[in-house]
Amino acid sequence: MREPRITQVADGVHFAESGSVNWALLTDGTAVTLVDAGYPADFPALRHSVETIGHRLRDITAVLLTHAHIDHIGGLPALLDEVDAPIHATAPEAAHARREFLEQATPLDVARNLWRPGVLPWAVHIIRAGALKPVKIPTATPFPAGGRLDLPGNPVPVATPGHTTGHAVYHLPEAGVVITGDTLVSGHPTSIKRGPQLLHPFFSKDQGQVITALDTLAALDADVVLPGHGGVHRGPIGEAVAQAKLGL
Ligand SMILES: [Zn+2]
Question: Mean pLDDT lowest for which of 15-29, 52-66, 124-138, 219-233?
């Protein structure tokens, strides 16, 4: 197992980077909310991240998903073997996690893009990480509507459709943090850019919608961005969005 890099960005807010993808841990006393869950092969790193911050897997009282791509739900089947935690997302994304439909770049989409810098080594790496495993989460359900969730960290889901139909980010108003999933990232193995940016359009259902969703992000009060891919980005989210738009 490659040890994940763990960064505490605020009281009760930890960010874990496995090298391929990221997740976040929100703690409140003994309870933990997990946001996203890595690739299937990331499960040992997921466990390690929880233990490194002084908790056990059984302290996870809920899992929130930004979206149901394999690199964000892959660790869940192994987790759910050990922990009885509810899995929540927006209503469309919960259906996506249950695999009532699939909105994900297919192996053919990836094959068509193998000529791009970094795509071939990335594809080899993610196949090893379990990218082709047919993971579905039958217990995924929508979180209650109405803003702030009564879970450790009190995250506020904000819909940002585009990367997937039901994609959401999670705003932590007291901490000034936003967990942006794949709506806004700060790097990716297939990108030569560093800093706030969008994923290549072939990864997303509707890149135009992703660009529109950036305005939703820019309106949040936050100065720490925890993306699905790339490292922590510090600075006002409005400036991060402006930087991402410059790269379009
Ligand atoms: Zn994704």
Answer: 124-138
Residue 36 · residue 23 · CB < 8 Å = yes
| Number of domains comprising the chain | 1
| CA 84 – ligand 1 centroid, Å | 25
SS3 122: helix
88 CA distance to ligand 1 centroid (A)?
A: 16
Q: How far is CA 173 from CA 8, 89, 188, in A?
A: 16, 19, 27
For residues 243 and 195, the answer to whether their CB atoms sit within 8 Å is yes
3-30 mean pLDDT: 96
Task: Report pLDDT digits (tens) over 81-90.
Answer: 999 999 999 9
Q: Please report, for the domain that includes residue 136, its CATH number.
A: 3.60.15.10
Cα-Cα-Cα-Cα torsion 231, 1, 20, 17, nearest 10 degrees, comes to -20
Checking if the pLDDT of 107 tops 90, the result is no
Distance 54 CA to ligand 1 centre (A): 29
Determine the distance separating the centroid of ligand 1 and the alpha carbon of 67, expressed in angstroms: 7
pLDDT, residue 221, reads 97
Q: Using 50, 70 and 90 to split pLDDT, how confident is the model at 103? A: very high
Q: What is the DSSP string of 83-119?
A: ----EEE-HHHHHHHTTSS--S--HHHHHHTTTSTTH
Which range of residues forms the domain containing residue 13?
5-246
Cα angle 139, 87, 199; round to 5: 115
Q: What is the mean pLDDT of residues 213-231?
A: 98
- Separation of first and last alpha carbons in the chain: 36
| pTM of model > 0.90 | yes
Element spanning 208, H or E: helix 207-218
